[in-house]
């Protein structure tokens, strides 16, 4: 009897090819600052476009000054942001004031643009409790240090927003390394199941400290992980501010319209080290890779685009740079003037009602601090 040929159960190649087609990188502005996707152009006025540029230039200067202040010993923990301005600032620009921001440790710029005073951001860097106290009108949590934890928290905050019937969203940020954590999967899955109004942003800057993204996952994109959670996923050119803005704005609309959460992967690069604690990027990436990414720079690209529309000049840019430097100088002075943190501050800021053992310790420290 002739052997019967069996049908293949799964055609893996076909499956992967289909997935790949669904998660192609979304772009509006190419590296030369030319619009390559007119149909997707976001609805931003000339003033709004200029404001987006202002914020990105300011943030680049803040990064340069923060690195320098850190080297002078005037700041503590600092994770550089240059190269990620489009991913950070343009995504935040698509939000509304009432939206809730849950940042990672590299996402201090979004907090500042959401309303955290700069001097408090400096205090956060110094590990001072005042840096973690959001003003009442700023819907945000402090930067999360535990990789991925903010994804679970965001699912919860978004569910809370839904239960209160509010038309707002919770947005969170992590890196490509964060997308390997269990919390990432739990967060997107839970938010998907409850159609919670959440936006999950993964800034894929290609390295989790020194580990390249290729070693983190066999999946071709991080965006495609959305499919397993039953939510919308998109991979965006994270050096293109207009693409990041458009994708985030659309995700926000989906969320507030009750159509559930989205996962946005932004392809970007951090030009500096992982943090200022001493890693050396030359140990894990080549100059060629760095040059390749610097050629995609979001500020250069957006500047070219704005200049082509007569919306930006060198004078405009210098004004922003000077104002940023001045504000940073004032903010660091204000941070310096903040009373030193005491042990009793830590204890009293942690609990509304002190547990018995801390009542005792509080007395001991009060006594010590009074001397
Ligand atoms: C749960 C947990 N594991 C390990 C660390 C140590 N750690 C700090 S940053 C980092 C890499 C994160 O990389 P990625 O998520 O890609 O973000 P990026 O720093 O590139 O923005 C690791 C492993 C941590 N903070 N939390």
Order of helices and strands: HHHEHHHEHEEEHEHEHHHHH
Number of strands: 7
DSSP strand (E) fraction? 5-15%
State the end-to-end distance.
Answer: 98 Å
From the 3D coordinates, which CATH architecture of the largest domain would you assign? 3-Layer(aba) Sandwich
Q: How large is the count of helical segments?
A: 14
Unique bound compounds:
thiamine diphosphate
Radius of gyration: 22 Å
The CATH class name of the largest domain reads Alpha Beta
Q: What's the CATH H-level homologous superfamily of the largest domain?
A: Thiamin diphosphate (ThDP)-binding fold, Pyr/PP domains
Secondary structure: helix percent = 40-55%
Structural class: alpha/beta
CATH fold type of the largest domain: Rossmann fold
Q: Indicate the overall shape.
A: globular
Low-confidence stretches: none
- How many separate structural domains? 2
Strand adjacency order, main sheet: 1-2-3-7-6
Briefly say what this structure is.
The chain is an alpha/beta fold and 371 residues long. The chain is 47% helix and 9% strand. The chain has 2 domains: 324 residues, Rossmann fold (3-Layer(aba) Sandwich), CATH 3.40.50.970; 31 residues, no CATH class.
């Amino acid at each position: 009897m002739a052997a019967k040929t069996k049908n293949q159960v799964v055609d893996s190649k076909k499956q992967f090819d289909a997935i790949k087609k669904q998660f192609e990188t979304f772009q509006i502005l190419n590296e030369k600052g030319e619009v390559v996707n007119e149909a997707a152009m976001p609805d931003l006025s000339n003033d709004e476009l200029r404001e987006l540029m202002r914020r990105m230039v300011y943030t680049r200067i803040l990064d340069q000054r923060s690195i320098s202040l850190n080297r002078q010993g005037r700041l503590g923990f600092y994770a550089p942001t240059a190269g990620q301005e489009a991913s950070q600032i343009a995504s935040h620009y698509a939000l509304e004031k009432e939206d809730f921001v849950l940042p990672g440790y590299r996402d201090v710029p979004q907090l500042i643009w959401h309303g955290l005073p700069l001097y408090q951001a400096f205090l956060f860097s110094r590990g001072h409790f005042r840096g973690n106290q959001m003003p009442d009108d700023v819907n945000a949590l402090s930067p999360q240090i535990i990789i991925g934890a903010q994804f679970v928290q965001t699912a919860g905050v978004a569910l809370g927003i839904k239960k209160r019937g509010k038309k707002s969203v919770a947005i969170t940020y992590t890196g490509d390394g964060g997308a390997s954590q269990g919390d990432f999967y739990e967060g997107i899955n839970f938010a998907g199941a409850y159609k919670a109004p959440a936006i999950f942003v993964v800034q894929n800057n290609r390295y989790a400290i020194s580990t390249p993204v290729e070693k983190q996952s066999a999946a071709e994109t991080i965006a495609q992980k959305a499919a397993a959670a039953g939510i919308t996923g998109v991979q965006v050119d994270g050096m293109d501010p207009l693409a990041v803005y458009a994708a985030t704005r659309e995700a926000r609309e989906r969320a507030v319209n009750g159509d559930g959460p989205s996962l946005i992967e932004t392809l970007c690069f951090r030009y500096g080290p992982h943090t200022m604690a001493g890693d050396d990027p030359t140990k894990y990436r080549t100059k060629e890779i760095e040059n390749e990414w610097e050629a995609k720079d979001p500020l250069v690209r957006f500047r070219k685009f704005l200049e082509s529309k007569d919306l930006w000049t060198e004078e405009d840019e210098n004004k922003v740079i000077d104002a940023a430097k001045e504000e940073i100088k004032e903010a660091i002075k204000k941070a310096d003037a903040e009373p030193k943190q005491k042990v009793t501050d830590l204890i009293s800021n942690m609990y509304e009602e002190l547990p018995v053992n801390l009542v005792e310790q509080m007395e001991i420290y009060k006594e010590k601090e009074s001397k």
